[in-house]
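Minutes, project check-in
Item: structure for the 426-residue chain
Input as provided by the requester:
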Amino acid sequence: MEGTVNRIPGRRWRRALTALGAAVFASSAVAACGSDDGGAVVNVYYPSEENFEQVVAACNEAAGGRYQVVLNTLPREADGQREQMVRRLAAGDTEMDVLGLDVTWVAEFAEAGWIAEWTGQDKSEVENGTLPGPLATARWQDKLYAAPKNTNVQLLWYRDDITPTPPKSWSEMLSMAEGLRAQGKPSTVLLTGAQYEGLVVQFNTLVGGAGGKILSDDSTRAVVDEGAVKALRALKDLATSPVSSASLSNAKEDPIRLDYQKGDSAFMLNWPFVYAAMKDANPELFAHFKWAPYPAIDADKTGTATIGGFNLAVSEYSTHKPAAFEAVRCLRNAENQKFSAINSGVPPTIESVYSDPAMAEPYPMRDTILAELKKPAPRPITPAYQNVSTLISTILSPPSAIDPQATAQRLREELQDALDSKGVLP
């Protein structure tokens, strides 16, 4: 998965798209600005992404020998990615130039002084046309520290043969599922309920969909307000419902995708990678496999979803910063984001890419994705996010044991201790 939960496995996207992507890629006009780092090697550290080496090759061609981008693949698991970069940056490693950061890591790396601020023309070029939601994940304390490369949001997936009209709210989803169960039809609701970042994403999305907050805007106080209490109640309602999956407390993205492909479930909350995977795995079910905005507790906020994705940052210790900033601008420009979307299944952060005709076939749900990206529920932006996430996933697991008011109070107390660097992590 992407970082912790949000990478879309490119290998599951249709191989037939490769020819289309290659044609699109060949026609791209990649603009490269001047650099005074002639002949420098720009080391890019990024997680595995299918076909990303082709983007790197195109940027090297555009650089015309002024510098060379070298791709270094990080470990597959998010913890391994972060650990490698943190260890080397803490030692002042000058060999790392460009860093692929999960959207939840930017504040931590910026606060530690490990990544360089984007300023001047570099900053303007990144901000121009980039969706505000993904762009917010690249900022810390009103400064830009990274360039959004790709993004992600979860959708509600359903079957139009048993549910012609999708639910518009969380309570309607549960009610419809229970009605299907009474008729002996597929009725299970699948989501990521295991004790990891996937559970945090569900909680955060529900909090946003109830108009609530987990932390204050400046990330110094644990708020966990009434909207968050409603989100806890919603998780509890599902976990104790007869339409909940028996494996909810152990469920992660790929296992619930596999469960849904069996045809026994009504609804699934998951990332867009499931679309192409369903076409390959169960063509008969694929004919009825549809999508809708993530259902909110407040129906007026349906479509409010947690943003995932990866940002590209320049190491503060890089000895080739001008070339590194230029390389990042190339790696994430509109043409290369389109190529990566079509060939690797990673949704773009630049709004104009969604209207490109080449996106129609691989992204039929692109309008729904774009709508969610325009009213996101960002995860708490704090240098202490790893601690915050660990506490939330621990306290909410298993979801069936949630006591909304008591759990909210525990979250307030333990999250505040984490923000104040007190207490012991579970």
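Outcome recorded: The two ends are 24 Å apart (CA to CA).
No further action items on this chain.
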